[in-house]
Amino acid sequence: MKAEVTNLDASKAGDIDLADEIFGLEVRNDLIHRMVRYQTLKRMAGTHHAQDRSEVAVTGKKMTKQKGTGGARHGDKSAPQFRGGGKAFGPKPRSHAIELPKKVRALALRHALSSKAKAGEIVVIDKATSEGKTGALKAQFAKLSLDNALIIDGAELEPTFARAARNIPNIDVLPVQGINVYDILRRRKLVLTRAAVAALEARFK
């Protein structure tokens, strides 16, 4: 499929061919959902912790006599039914990560790219360069109607562009090796440089 290439000042810079095996797939939302779930679960800290009855700081003394009180024969106050006692079956630190085959992850990325292409939400620019001024870059983005976008460059980001873009709300900049399904979907537009398109095609050959 053909795509128009523009410069950051909104002037035309030619055309580019986008590979159908990457940008032209029939979108499978189930694969995309599995990948988003994989990413979000993997990033969870899993540091939640509740004290059980062996960890709470209460006396270990038997509450009442074993016989003669007419009450239940409780042992100590750390039992879960008492105020200040331990939590029964409370959360413990653990990993929430799930398994997802590498081939499925790669396929999900291609389907996410195809979904953006199908929705007409991919913008291809010639280069991601800037003089390092946030205001000037924001004005250039306004010409391209980029107010909520993920920008993917080649293997290396230009430091001045990355520095100028990082203060603009709802704009993310990543090198091509950092492209992922979650970040693609959370932004309205996907902006790819020529270098990013070439790197993606080489990656999925």
Automatic annotation (TrEMBL):
The UniProt keyword set, sorted, is: Ribonucleoprotein, Ribosomal protein, RNA-binding, rRNA-binding
Protein name per its UniProtKB record: Large ribosomal subunit protein uL4
The protein's superkingdom reads: Bacteria
* Family of the protein in this entry: Belongs to the universal ribosomal protein uL4 family.
- Pfam families, alphabetized: Ribosomal_L4 (PF00573)
Question: Which interval of the chain is the signal sequence?
Answer: none
User: Region entry Disordered: which residue ranges?
Assistant: 46-94
A single GO BP term for this record reads: translation
Q: Which residue ranges does UniProt annotate as crossing the membrane? A: none
Gene label: rplD
Source organism of this protein record = Hyphomicrobium denitrificans (strain ATCC 51888 / DSM 1869 / NCIMB 11706 / TK 0415)
